[in-house]
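User:
I would dearly like some help making sense of a protein record. Take your time, and here it is.
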Amino acid sequence: MSKTADTVLPDPSRWKALAFIALAQLMVVLDATIVNIALPSAQTDLGISDGNKQWVITAYALAFGGLLLFGGRIADLWGRKRAFVVGLIGFALASALGGAAQNEAMMYGSRALQGVFGALLAPAALSLLAVMFTDAKERAKAFGIYGAIAGGGGAVGLILGGFLTEYLNWRWTFFVNIPFAVVAAVGAYLVIREPSGSRNRSPLDIPGVVLSTSGLVALVYGFTRAESAGWSDGLTVFMFIASAVLLAAFVLVESRVESPLLPLRVLLERNRGGVYLSLGLAIIGMFGLFLFLTYYLQIVKGYSPVKTGFAFLPMIVGMITGSTQIGTRLMTRVPPRLLMGPGFLVAATGMLLLTQLDLDTSYAAVILPGQLLLGLGMGTAFMPAMSLATHGIEPRDAGVASAMVNTSQQVGGAIGTALLNTIAASATTAYIADHASRAADPRLLELQAMVNGFSSAIWWAVGILVVASAIAFVLIDTGRPGTGTGPTGEASETGVEDEIRIPVVAH
């Protein structure tokens, strides 16, 4: 096929489109953490029991994590712009319902609806970037901005959640999504021009939808339940077994049907597979740290919600710097593995500093530099990971490839929260048992045990980040964008043509 036939002029409004896509991504990421700060107040107002409070988080996680692949396929079928706008409108309505909740049923229902529309919105946003930015340097900048928001938005949510909860009302942590969604939806409708011929109009794979959704829901619920009921709980074990059977059946179905929900070519290409696996592992460590540091700063150090949010600023600064300055500037000069592998190692170094937490740990000497290194490393790694996850994909598969990035993060977050929290709880219990007979102050013992539990779990997070780095080094073997190098490092005949073809040719 001739170069002329394959060359597509870049969309003149692509940078305006990026602003609205980034705004939508910020809203989704903010929502993931902002509710955590507001949860105690909402629990009191709505009369939610301690046993049921986890469902405010779990209802969202189950819907979002379980439906992401389906949402990505719908985006490919409907068109990403339509899926993106519908997802934004639905998310805004669900947020309004949550802010107006009068009882726990309304709250759980609104959170599940947020998850449903988030599962449509998130893959549509990422796949729009994949099909709109095809020049290597522009793509690096676009994904740098997107990666910074994806990484730093969670910490911004802690600050905003603290302000809204402390000075207004917990309901505003839901209502604040509405202006974000309205502005992003109107802007997207007016400026986004999706490339023609990029839809996948194949029939919907219903068995794949049912098996993947139920398998992912069982997996996320299994880890969520393990956190509260324990790993040996009968229902927890059943959920893990059911998830393994359902997901195995899903893979079998996908290998045989004519139009699969998740074409195995998306998953089995070593670079994309390496991104999904290493990113999912890295998120395990990062989500656990958010949880532990929030509790440490508020309970041990006595910080207010607002002060706690501001205490996370070094991580935001690190992520933004890593994504937009280091990752973006180097992505077109070095292979992605030389950003992702070292990035995860720098993050592990920051995490290693935080294993030194104690009752009187200095924020300036330990927590600040630890967060800064963690942010720098994750920001540097996130940017090429987000770009590589959809790089070389055919436009008809862009939605489902984007959904896999979000799925690896969502499942990684669920696993990280449950796994590391369980490790921390076990270490805390063991510490109390060992020191109870010699403790003069029960309250002091409780705090020391809590911090010991956090340190033990953070050590595991360090190990997980090192494994993520090793996977990035070993599995990801593509050359730098625009060089025309293949997986073996040999030059292709097309060279720079890789940057401008639709579909984008895998390096």
Q: What stands out?
A: DSSP finds 18 helices and no strands in the chain. The longest helix spans residues 398-435. The radius of gyration is 22 Å.
